[in-house]
Structures are given as structure tokens and as C-alpha cells.
Write a structure and sequence with these properties.
The chain has one helix and nine strands. It has 169 residues and is mainly β. The model has no long low-confidence stretch (mean pLDDT 85).
């Protein structure tokens, strides 16, 4: 028996756009703390734009051996707050595959003084650090790492200043 020809085109549900503000409002489920990500902060000179930038390099703790992955992120900078949300992992095309962590780089310009850096996971967990940027002294100081006061927050990210990879003009 043949199938009936449809008279109308079926509607496909649209994916909801997840914004940083919606992720901040979400309350995560209670889980055990486990370090999953490392956030390394450094100076990086962009030779194309000829601009000094600040690099936030996110890496996973786990190593991937069969494919090369990247971390999908979204970032937002307000007055003295930098929000970086981790949206997920994406496979990247590479001919040579070697074991390594998933990586992502987020760049900012014109940071001076103390900023609160928030790393936000898709479930709503937030890890924060207070970082002091001083381009004139060519110095970045990690002042404090903390969990914001929110129900069921857990430690999933470490912060560090990567002085070995500082790049200046």
C-alpha cells in the first residue's frame, strides 16, 4: 500500500537561543565537584590588527585521543565583569590527530584594572575569579578565585596566569 502524499509541510521546532543572562539565572543540579576546565590568562599581540589583546584560553582536563575537539564559547564584557559561557564541544577537522585537550581562545581588548571573570557552564554552574590587568607594567595578577553565592554551585574550573606565553610587540 503506497504512502499518502502530505498536503502541508510539517513544522520543524526552532532551537532556543541560550544567552549568557539565561545561563546565569539557571539553577544547576547538585553534583560533586570535579575539575573539568582550566582557564589560562595571558597577553597576546595580534600582528594583523597591530593591537595588544588579552587571551583567555580554555582547555579541558580530559584528553581526547580519537578526534580533535574545540570548545564552543560565547563571551560578553560589561563594565568590570567578563562572562564566558561554555556551550559545548565541537569536532574540528584535522588530518593529523594527536591526543590532547579540547581548546578555545577568547580575546578582549582595552582591559585595565580589576575585573571579575565568570566561567559559566550550560547547566548554570558559575566559577569566578578577580583578575587585575596592568598593560603598562605588563602584568596580570590573579587576586581571588571563588564560587558566587548561588544554590548548588560547584568547582569545575581553575584559573591561572600563563606568563610563559606572554606575547608583546
Amino acid at each position: 500500500m503506497p504512502l499518502k502524499k502530505p498536503k502541508t509541510v510539517p513544522k520543524i521546532a526552532k532551537a532556543r537561543k541560550v544567552t549568557i543572562d539565561k545561563l546565569k539565572e539557571a539553577v544547576p543540579n547538585k553534583r560533586e565537584s570535579e575539575i573539568e576546565y582550566n582557564c589560562k590568562i595571558a597577553f597576546k599581540f595580534n600582528p594583523v590588527k597591530k593591537v595588544q589583546q588579552y587571551l583567555f584560553a580554555l582547555e579541558t582536563e580530559k584528553l581526547f585521543s580519537s578526534m580533535k575537539y574545540g570548545i564552543t564559547t560565547e563571551s560578553k564584557k560589561d563594565k568590570k565583569v567578563i562572562d564566558i559561557s561554555i556551550l559545548g564541544l565541537t569536532p574540528s577537522q584535522a588530518y593529523l590527530i594527536e591526543p590532547g585537550p579540547a581548546k578555545s581562545e577568547v580575546f578582549f581588548e582595552d582591559l585595565y584594572g580589576e575585573y571579575t571573570v565568570n566561567i559559566i557552564k550550560k547547566d548554570g554552574s558559575i566559577n569566578s575569579a578577580i583578575v587585575d590587568f596592568n598593560l603598562f607594567k605588563k602584568d596580570i595578577k590573579l587576586l581571588k578565585e571563588f564560587l558566587p553565592p548561588k544554590k548548588n554551585n560547584r568547582k569545575f574550573c581553575t584559573f591561572s596566569v600563563d606568563q610563559r606565553n606572554f606575547a608583546f610587540e
